[in-house]
Every structure is written in C-alpha cells, then in structure tokens.
Hints:
The complex is a heterodimer. Chain A is built from 11 helices and 2 strands; from the N terminus they run ααααβααααβααα.
Amino acid sequence: MEYFLELFLGGLTRGSIYALIALGYTMVYGIIELINFAHGEIYMIGAFTALIVASVLNIMGFGPITILILAMVLAVVYSCAYGFTMEKIAYKPLRHSTRLAPLISAIGMSIFFQNYVLLAQTSDFLPFPSLLPELEFLEPYAFIIRSSEVFIILTTLVVMVLLTLLIKFTRIGKAMRATAQDRTMAMLVGVDVNRVISTTFIIGSSMAAIGGVLIASHIGQINFYIGFIAGIKAFTAAVLGGIGSIPGAVLGSLVLGWTESFATGYISSDYEDVFAFGFLVLILIFRPAGLLGKTTTQKV
Amino acid sequence: MMGRVNVSKSLKKWYLVTATAIAAVLLTLPAASFAAKNAKPIKIGVPGAHTGDLASYGLPTVKATELVIKAKNEAGGINGQMIQLLTEDDACKPEMAVNAATKLVTSGAQAIIGHICSGATNAALGVYKDAKLVVISPSATNPPLTQSGDNPNFFRTIASDDAQARLQVDFALDKLGVKKVAVIHDKGDYGKGLAEFAKTFLEASPGVTVTIFEGVTPGAVDYSAVVQKIKQSKAEAVIFGGYHPEASKIVTQMRRRGMKIPFISDDGVKDDTFIKVAGKYAEGVYATGPKDTSTNPLTIKAIADHKQFYGEDPGAFFLNAYAAAQAMVNAIEKAGSTDYDKLIHALRNEAVETPLGNIKFDEKGDAIGIGFSIYQVQKGVYVEME
Lengths: 300, 386
C-alpha cells in the first residue's frame, strides 16, 4: 500500500510537471488552433534565465526568497518577451495561409531556439540550484514527497484555477472566447484580435517560465534540450485531455503521469513509453476529442 | 631551353647514382652487422588497418612497435639477434585479415603484434594458430577472443568490453559485501551492454540476486518511479550503465528520499560534469574508469620518443601497442627463442615494466592489471581506489 502511495505521488508530481507546460500548449491551441511546438523551448529559456539571474544574485549575496522571486519574475518577463516576439515574427504573417504553414514555422522556431541556446550558452548539462524553500513540516515524509513536489502540484492547481477564472469572468477572457469561436466575427464586433492573440502568447509563455523555474529546481539540472523532451510529453498530455480545454490539459497530464509511474512501478520502466502512448491511442479511439475535449463539427 | 633539358637530365642521372649508392650502403650495413653477430633477424609481424577509414587506429601500433624495436636493436637486440618489422594491411576487414596473416606467415614472421579490430583479429587467429604463432593485440576488445578459450595463442594489452562490468560486480560483491543488486541502464548500446554483462556476472555468483533489471528513458523529467522500485526491491546496491545526465538525476532522487545504498557506475559517469551537476549528492558514488597511467615515467618517455621521431603526438592505442611490443620482446628474450610453448609460458609468467604498468597475462590471455580502476567521489573529486 505504501508502495502504491509512493507511485501515486510520483505520478502526481510527474503529471503536474507535464501540466505546467501542457496548459500553455492547450491555451494557444484553444484560441488560434496552432500547435506551438516552440512552447517547450520557451520553458527552457525561462529555466536558463532563472539560472543566470539566480547565479548573479547569489554572488551579490541576496537571500534565498529574494533570489527565488526575482529569478521567477525575470524569467517570466524574459520568456514573455520571447513568446510575444515569436508570435509576431513567425506566426502572425502566416495567419491567413494554410494551417500547415504556421505549424512548420513553429517547428522551425523550436529548432532555432534550441540551437540559439546551445551556441549562446553551452551544450553541457548545468547544475540548477534548488531555489524552492524546504518546508520543515514535510521533513518526516521526505521519503514519500518533497517540498519541491508540493510546490509543483500546488502551482499547477492554482494556475489552472486562475486560468479558468480568467477565461470565464474577465473582459480579455471573453475576448479570447470570442476569438476562439470565430475570429472574423470577433473582429467585426470590435475585438482587437491581434491584442488577444498576443496576450494569449504572453500568458502561455509566463506559465512556461514558471514551470521552467519550478521543474528545473526540482530536477536540479538543465541543458538546451530539456524543452523538446518535456514539450513532446506535455503535448501528448494536452491531446489526451482534449486539446483546447484547460482542465483537460491538467487531467490529461495527470493521467499520463500516473500511467508512466504505475507502468514503471508494476511492470517495467522499459515499457514506460509503450504504455503511455498505448493508452493515448486507446483514449483517442474511444474519445477522439480527448478526455474533456468538445466534439465540434468541422468549420467549413 | 635546350640547356635546361640537359641540366635536368644530368640532375636525374646524378640522383640515380646517389640513390643507388645509398641503397647499396643501406643494404650492406645490416648484412654486415648480422654477419658480425652471426644470426638471422627475428621477424615480428604487425598486421592492422594501415589504409582506409580506420588507418588512424592501426598506424600508431606500427609506430609503437618501431620505437620498441629500434630501442632494443640499439641496445644489441635480443640475445644478439636483431629484430625486423614486417607490416601488412588488413583495413580492419576480416577477409583481408586472413590474407594479411597468410602473407606474414609465409614471409617468416615469428611473432605478431595485432590485429587492430576485433573482427579482423578473430578471422586471422586461425591462420596463426595453425602456424603456431603467438599474437598480442593492442586493441581487440571483444570478450570471447580470450574468454572462449579457443585461442591459446592470443593475448591482449587492452581490457575486454566486459572488464568494467566485471570490476563493478567484483567490487560490489567482494569489497562492499552486497548480495542484492539492482541493475539499471539507459537503454543505449553502451549502457545496456555494460548492464547486461553486470547482470550475467551477478547471476553467475552464488547467493547473489539481481533484484531488478530495468532501462530508463534518457531525458525524462523524473525517475521517481524507478527509484521507488529500487527501494521496494530491497536492493543493497545499484549498478547503473549509462551516462552522467541520467546518473545524476537518479542519484539525486535516491539520496533525497533517504536511500543511502552504494551507487556504482561506469566510464560514462566518471566525468566531472556529473560531480558538478549532482553536487553534494555525488559524494560517495563509485564509477569505473581507465587506469590513470599518465604519470608513469615509461609513459612520459614513450610519448616523448614518439614526438622526437615522428614529430607529433601519438595516436590511438599507442600505449597499449607499446606495452604489447615490450611484452613480446621481453617474452622472446626470456624464452630464449620464439618457440610456441616457451613463448606462451614466458608471457604468462615473466612480468614486464610497461607504460601501462607491470604486466603479465592470465591463463586466458588478458593482461593482468590493465584496464580499469574503481574511482569514488570524495569531497567533490574522483579519487582512484586501491
């Protein structure tokens, strides 16, 4: 039973990690139906920014909480700048072309960012300081769950709730829903579609950056390639949950995390990916739109 | 114009005369010296990849053998007999290796330093066995070459592919005294290969169980499930085959969960990046790595000689080849001849001081004391253990 609980919590953490990245994927897809393959790279850039900021502040002698907050804020700002610029350069000019064009452009951005960081920083793995404070009351349970895992799970929950509220109850949220339903019509009734899309990218990028900082300090190492692998898994999770749906992204991520964790724990880690993707195929056969996705009729 | 032609013609003539004169002198010199010693030279064959893609693996062995022979001949040869070098190219191809071996045998080679590649070596060994020639390879690492027991005439001055796994298992069982071991790998050729050897060796040891044998996906965001599984399996030590990014994640997660069992890994983890990334969690981790011979005076001398004669740094397997040539020369000297049985006896019993240490060979033909050491992370650096 304890073993089951450990695997359950391990899967929960892993799922929450995927969810932090999957939320950004699903949000961008929900609004403009673009699979932003470079989303994982934004996450990686966030982690690198935080590492650089944290190293500098550490040398300057700041306290751990100040470092965490400043590193997080600067990572978010920097990643947002990248996300915003990326949309303007790589996706906006292609908005009225075929659906494949921005997809290829996204893959191009992904490769570009990886190589940019590879050249500007290093190809080596770098140690990432554990920026998150250790919660003392968790000390006796360290063998089951750690502080950083609690932070990741809580952050995922908070981000999911905030996003849902934002989309349901705010002005910009309403504009986002309008843009998602029908871009031309939204424009006709006076919604500034360009601004809505930019905002979507900024929100998505800031979530990626927060994820980058939390996950990197949980794992303890980064390199230029982490975004790609995490991005693939997060994308899978988003599809599993129903791409475009915010709670779906979280549910899909958790399901994927648990599948992997239990497959490793009870069968073999050699087959971890086999089970994860086998499960994805099964769900898509029975629910083609994903777990919480809405089956919509194709717009013609 | 005419004048120029005449000049070049006369120059050519002059060259020809000089060349013939030099050749004549060169020819008479060794003949004279052999005549003086009243003995035929001992011929050592050096087959290997001397042309093609893999020439950079084969040529350093020729140079190493040349250096050893040159030094020996200058010191008066083996019991007065000079040593002569015969080279033959096999381009690392098994079919060419058989031809090269046959050529060497027919030109009267009495001992062989080579071949370079495992496949070529395996193909050629039969020819040498029939001709009763002893072979020392500086670089053929395929385990069965020695372990199958089919090649009593084969020796090597390099550790076989499974040597790291052997060392890890011996260390875990004999030094650490563990009985239950979890074997983890990264599913790659290198890591999985080593892990499979380790598993085989562990299972062959009485009373030892492999609690789990699992591959992890490189680059995954966390390994908590596999770490829990190691814990659940009640393993007393972990042997990991793979590289440092995965090793540091697994060790970190193990230590953070309060698992203090020994973590033993390989050459791919014996890297300073591992210590840098895993930080305090790297402390106490064991890893196998090539023995450090760079401070051996013989190594320093061999490399200095190479630079002096060839004007460049030595290439791949140079030190292994140097040791092989020294072992062969020493064995011929101690045996008093190149007689098959006497030579094998000498190789197994007469130790020789080489850049790789003081070596002789075991029953199967592997050099004792060559290859890998266990290192442990102590205060942020890898320290070689006894």
